[in-house]
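hey so i finally got around to running the thing on that chain from the lab meeting. sorry it took forever, my laptop kept dying and i had to restart like 3 times. anyway pasting the input first so we r on the same page abt which one it is
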Amino acid sequence: MAAITQVGRVMVPVGNQDTAISFYTNKLGFTLAADVPFGSGERWVEVAPPAGGAALALVPPRGEYQAGRMTGIALETGDAASAREELASAGVDVDDAVIGGDGTVPPMFFMRDQDGNSLLVVQQ
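ok and heres what got predicted. didnt touch it at all, straight out
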């Protein structure tokens, strides 16, 4: 059995890595974890949430791996309603309302990054 210990990073295709870095660091408060040359003239860019966990690798689109899709990524917050309001005030494309919160399903909403990639924000 392989010795896999955790999810280290998740790749998110973006149209422009600099624009994506700005969005994830300035709007979501992530930190720039890596920005290094990669391959022939490309860059490997990672941003990470301030409390740790898996990083997001902001990669150029390739083949069918294109920006503007559902990522399947769920980000955590302590207060979904407050996070939604903060993000909306910062100009982030967020759902109209928080859903869930009925005791079975936690409060959550979707947001979209600068390329239209959808990410779920879920209250811990």
